[in-house]
């Protein structure tokens, strides 16, 4: 039979302890079914029995069988309470002699005293004797006629057996025979397709040889909080996995928000975080100007927001970006996670990775695609800083964009996983220098056609006359509507970086947020922002129309671009030559001029050449078109044609600045 992986457990997250996810079951011989042998080791109260029940249920269900749980300590009915904790069906635990057809994964509970091997209670006074009697009881259960068989009391075969009999040995108790007997039993059970799960009490006298006879070892421990020394943290380790890779841990292990046991593995070292990403729920690219650069940070980026920056913190820009759906997390001893209108609380006693996995599940459920963390330096200073770095790395690997708002000096420890620090340098892979203006922009003429002005005035001067006398002072302060007016002005003349630096996209300034969305649609290819522009309930004004046209061009949506220009032609009665010029030159924005798309570039060039020679096209526009043709010729390496085009531009408009075109 083929090997299997058990990837569904009543303890969420347990499958991710293994790489790839899932506990391996291996066919040891050609005739046997896939099995494993497991040791669950831990101190009193750590959750050994619950873990053993979960393993037995998952393995037997995967193999379409049932499980036997043999206990030597507590009463068998206690297993039913463990099953209820795991949210197993009410009839998921039955007594050994319950005949009939039971669901796959059902656990048959049996106490040693209910077997012939344990009938004489006086014979079970020593731990050594109870261990031997437990092995005899298993033989009695699966080999009543002397030959091992998976046949159980019900109609389904037995596919897993738990032997909860390995308490701490009596001092000085050496029992070399037990190892051989146990190994023989495990091998006999594997031959008939039964997996074995051993439960051992941990302590100084624990029998270390048990680890050598099984395929997989789980260890559960309670450790004290590193900072306070009194908060207990439950952790799970997997130091051995014979037939597959496992993450040794320690992994945080406790109760999730529904009070069900859960494991929150640390996947960083396995490079398995990407397997948790949801491709149809990725955040938009975070867009931010700093100095002479644009920073474009895609899904999975880690941004540090400086809380000392009162009016333009990255966190506000992050949360207000169209398409960004963040969980808002306030870190501390009791961490608050706000998603939509609901809030959840995660105790530090559950471990940092309980928070990480809560966010990952919310992402996979489509509820969030980003995380905003305030006060994360609490975890870095009070817990393990290295675990803090790995926690952020896991979120990033799952393609969740992360913004951490706090003291940048305190968050410096996250340096290895950080993409951008507010007020600091961008990581080189994400630097986008401001492109020098290369084209004479046709869209800057659109306001002139939509709101006719004096023909003697250049468009820039005409725009300036619409501004208040104190415009430049107000723009410098970038407050309220004046800041928006200033940003719109700079966008009209093609200086988007300057426009971006004047905006404060925070809830107090909704107009700033709207313009910020337009810039992100153009420069960060934000599809949500583009659709917000394209589906506005009222007709767009001139500036928003230009932003929509540029965004459609930037996102290579040529058909929609053509349709919007045709709408503008009808709405503002644009001359045909201008509409054609606008369309052709916006197409140029879809090209990488250092690596032209030959087919589109040729179509654009032919259209511009026709317009440049058409007598209906005014001389000023013809001059600009010839200049733009020169730019295209330079890009394709035709220096002679570029020089001729520039010469024609100068002939038509001697005042045209060929170094810094408008």
Describe the structure.
The chain is an alpha/beta fold and 662 residues long. Among the domains are: 4-265, Rossmann fold (3-Layer(aba) Sandwich); 276-432, no CATH class. The chain is built from 21 helices and 25 strands. The strands form 5 sheets. Strands 7-8-6-9-10-5-11-12-14-15 form a 10-stranded mixed beta sheet, with helices on both faces. Helix 3 (127-142) runs parallel beside helix 4 and helix 12 runs antiparallel to helix 13 (496-502). It starts with a strand and ends in a 10-residue tail after the last helix.
Strand content: 15-25%
Structural class: alpha/beta
How many DSSP-defined strands?
A: 25
* CATH C-level name of the domain at 4-265: Alpha Beta
What overall geometry do the principal axes of the alpha carbons give?
A: elongated
CATH architecture annotation name of the domain at 4-265: 3-Layer(aba) Sandwich
The fourth-level CATH homologous superfamily of the domain at 4-265 is P-loop containing nucleotide triphosphate hydrolases
- Extract low-pLDDT stretches: 453-479
CATH fold name of the domain at 4-265: Rossmann fold
Kindly report the spatial arrangement of strands forming the biggest sheet. 7-8-6-9-10-5-11-12-14-15
How would you state the average pLDDT, rounded? 82
What is the percent of helical residues?
Answer: 25-40%
Distance between the termini: 73 Å
Our Rg estimate from Cα atoms comes to 35 Å
Count of DSSP H/I helices: 21
């Amino acid at each position: 039979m083929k090997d299997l992986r058990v990837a569904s457990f009543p303890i969420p997250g347990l499958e991710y302890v293994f790489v790839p996810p899932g506990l391996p079951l291996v066919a040891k011989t050609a005739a046997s079914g896939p099995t494993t042998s497991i040791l669950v080791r831990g101190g009193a109260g750590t959750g050994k029995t619950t873990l053993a029940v979960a393993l037995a249920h998952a393995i037997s269900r995967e193999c379409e069988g049932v499980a036997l749980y043999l206990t030597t300590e507590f009463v068998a009915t206690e297993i039913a309470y463990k099953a209820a904790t795991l949210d197993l069906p009410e009839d998921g635990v039955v007594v050994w002699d319950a005949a009939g057809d039971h669901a796959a994964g059902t656990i048959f509970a049996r106490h040693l005293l209910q077997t012939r091997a344990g009938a004489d209670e006086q014979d079970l006074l020593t731990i050594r004797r109870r261990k031997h009697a437990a092995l005899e009881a298993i033989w009695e259960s699966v080999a009543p006629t002397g030959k091992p068989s998976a046949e159980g009391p019900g109609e389904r075969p037995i596919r897993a057996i738990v032997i909860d009999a390995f308490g701490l040995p009596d001092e000085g108790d050496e029992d070399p025979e037990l190892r051989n007997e146990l190994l023989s039993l495990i091998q006999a059970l594997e031959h008939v397709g039964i997996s074995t799960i051993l439960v051992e009490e941990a302590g100084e006298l624990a029998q270390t040889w048990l680890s050598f006879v099984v395929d997989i070892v789980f260890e559960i421990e309670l450790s004290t909080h590193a900072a306070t020394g009194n908060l207990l943290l439950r952790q799970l380790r997997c130091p051995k996995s014979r037939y597959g890779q496992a993450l040794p841990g320690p992994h945080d292990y406790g109760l999730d928000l529904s009070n069900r046991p859960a494991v929150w593995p640390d996947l960083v070292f396995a490079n398995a975080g990407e397997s948790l990403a949801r491709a149809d729920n990725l955040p938009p690219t975070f867009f931010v100007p700093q100095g002479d650069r644009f920073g474009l940070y895609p899904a999975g980026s880690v941004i540090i927001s400086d809380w000392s920056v009162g009016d333009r913190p990255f966190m506000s820009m992050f949360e207000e970006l169209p398409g960004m759906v963040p969980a808002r997390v306030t870190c501390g001893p009791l961490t608050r996670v706000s998603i939509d209108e609901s809030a959840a609380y995660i105790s530090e006693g559950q471990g940092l990775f309980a928070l990480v996995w809560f966010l990952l599940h919310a992402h996979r459920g489509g509820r969030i695609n980003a995380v905003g963390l305030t006060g994360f330096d609490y975890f870095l200073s009070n817990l393990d800083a290295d675990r803090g770095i790995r926690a952020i790395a896991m979120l990033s690997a799952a393609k969740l964009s992360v913004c951490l708002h706090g003291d940048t000096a305190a968050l410096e420890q996250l340096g290895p996983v950080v993409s951008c620090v507010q007020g600091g340098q961008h990581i080189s892979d994400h630097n986008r220098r401001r492109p020098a203006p290369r084209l004479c922009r046709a869209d800057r003429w659109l306001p002139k056609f939509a709101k006719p002005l004096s023909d003697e005035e250049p468009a820039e001067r005409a725009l300036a006359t619409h501004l208040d006398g104190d415009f430049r002072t107000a723009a410098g302060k970038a407050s309220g509507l004046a800041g928006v007016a200033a940003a719109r002005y700079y966008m009209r003349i093609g200086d988007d970086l300057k426009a971006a630096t004047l905006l404060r996209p925070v809830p107090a300034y909704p107009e700033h947020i709207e313009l910020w969305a337009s810039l992100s649609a153009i420069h960060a290819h934000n599809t949500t922002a583009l659709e917000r522009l394209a589906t506005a309930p009222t007709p767009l004004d001139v500036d928003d129309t230009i932003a929509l046209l540029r965004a459609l061009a930037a996102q290579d949506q040529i058909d929609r671009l053509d349709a919007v220009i045709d709408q503008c032609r009808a709405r503002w009665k644009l001359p045909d030559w201008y509409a054609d010029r606008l369309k052709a030159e916006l197409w140029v924005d879809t090209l990488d001029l250092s690596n032209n798309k030959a087919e589109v570039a040729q179509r654009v060039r032919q259209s511009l050449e026709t317009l440049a020679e058409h007598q209906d096209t005014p001389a000023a526009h013809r001059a600009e078109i010839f200049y733009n043709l020169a730019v295209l010729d330079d890009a394709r390496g035709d220096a002679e044609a570029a020089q001729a085009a520039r010469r024609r531009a100068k002939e038509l408009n001697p005042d045209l600045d060929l170094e810094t075109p408008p």
